[in-house]
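Many introductory courses stop at the sequence. We go one step further.
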Amino acid sequence: MNDDQTEFQIRDRYSFYRFLGLSQEGKVPDATHQSIGLLGKHVLNSSLNS
């Protein structure tokens, strides 16, 4: 799934919020500022260090 599709899914489905550990009041990572890619790298690094 590309960053644009991921951003849409996050905005469209509450289950994505829960999966990513986001709150509804918080900011949604967006594709235009590469924050989805950074989030993915953070999740990957966190899982490798666990």
